[in-house]
Design goal:
mainly alpha, Growth Hormone, Chain: A, 240 residues, 2 domains, 0% strand, globular, 9 helices
Length: 240
């Protein structure tokens, strides 16, 4: 007869994985997608306030994607090494601070710099959301789990573009306060990620030279995968 404690542990893990998935979907919506799509609809206000041209606004919008190219793979490798829970908690806090800093911009240089910084941090979070699915869900349910995250991202894109300029900006008093609001939401999302349990199969983090070597090895391994380059080129074409 199976030990009742083992049954309870499996039931607890099952319940917790659905909590993780819900939290991942909310993070995709509230921390990544809505703040991202707030920028395009707020650009008119920002351009008038900071005296920016259409070309300058386009450069600001593109700089976030450039940051994502530089940070996405590194963010995934760091999550593998130090654990998704830790990286997601730190990432939400860092993105909240970086995202809110955009509201203090006074000219093109400061806006470009803060948007670039936000792009660096935000690019690492989606990789680790999918990693959380991989460590908590069995292979047969990975499609469902990743689909929930993708749906959360799409929902956030829609809602962020719908309400950021038409509802939140008038209600909060301008584009700066909208960015502060989104930054505060991201910081709050740090709390549930901090309180979650680590996945049973995750081992403790390595430190020092071992961690650096492992991250470098992971990046080199991914860089040699032809399918990754093909997918990257396809996404570049679609996104561009």
């Amino acid at each position: 007869m199976e030990d009742p404690m083992h049954i309870d542990d499996r039931r607890s893990d099952s319940n917790h994985r659905w909590f993780i998935l819900t939290l991942a979907g909310l993070t995709a919506t509230l921390v990544i997608a809505m703040p991202t799509m707030a920028l395009p609809v707020l650009f008119h206000e920002m351009a008038e306030d900071l005296g920016l041209s259409l070309v300058q606004i386009g450069a600001v919008w593109g700089i976030a994607s450039l940051a994502g190219v530089l940070a996405a793979l590194a963010g995934g490798a760091i999550g593998d090494r130090f654990g998704t829970k830790r990286i997601l908690a730190i990432g939400c806090l860092a993105l909240g601070v970086a995202g809110a800093s955009r509201g203090f911009s006074i000219n093109l240089a400061t806006l470009t710099g803060t948007v670039f910084l936000s792009g660096l941090v935000s690019a690492a979070i989606p990789m680790n959301l999918h990693k959380a699915c991989a460590v908590w869900f069995p292979r047969r349910r990975l499609g469902l789990a990743n689909g929930v995250i993708a749906a959360g991202m799409a929902f956030g894109f829609m809602i962020g573009s719908m309400i950021s300029a038409t509802v939140l900006s008038p209600w909060l008093g301008g584009w700066r306060h909208v960015l502060f609001f989104y930054g505060g939401v991201a910081c709050v999302m740090t709390i549930p990620w901090t309180l979650t349990r680590s996945a049973p199969e995750q081992s403790g983090p390595s430190t020092g030279d071992d961690a650096v070597t492992s991250i470098r090895r992971a990046l080199l391994r991914v860089a040699r995968l032809r399918s990754v380059w093909l997918l990257g080129i396809a996404i570049l074409g679609v996104g561009g």
